[in-house]
Structure formats: structure tokens, C-alpha cells
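B., you asked whether I could sanity-check this one before it goes into the benchmark set. Here's the sequence:
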Amino acid sequence: MAADEKAQAKGEQAKGKVKKTVGGAVGNESLRAEGRAEESKGDLRDAKEKAKDAFKDK
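And here's what the prediction gave me:
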């Protein structure tokens, strides 16, 4: 389950980064903002999984 969550986090981060880059390149602020939000969501999910792993190791 944790590996699935980590993979999902990486996918969200990558997808968000692409949307952010494309939005900036074409001047679409809405797409750029959506990309930032999705990337942040992935970052939060990744941080949550890292915290769970840290507590699991103790």
C-alpha cells in the first residue's frame, strides 16, 4: 500500500510539473495554477508517506 501511495505521489508531482511548464509556455495561467496545485498535492502525499515510514522504522 505504501509503495502505491508513493508512486501516486510521484505521478502527481510529475503531472503537475508538466502542466505548470506547459501552462507557462503557452501563457495559460489557469493551466499553470492547476499544475502548481497538483504538484503541491503530490508533495504533500510524499511528505505524508515519508513521515509514516519514519514512524514505522522506530
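One thing to flag: Residues 22 and 32 are 7 Å apart (CA to CA). Otherwise nothing jumped out at me.
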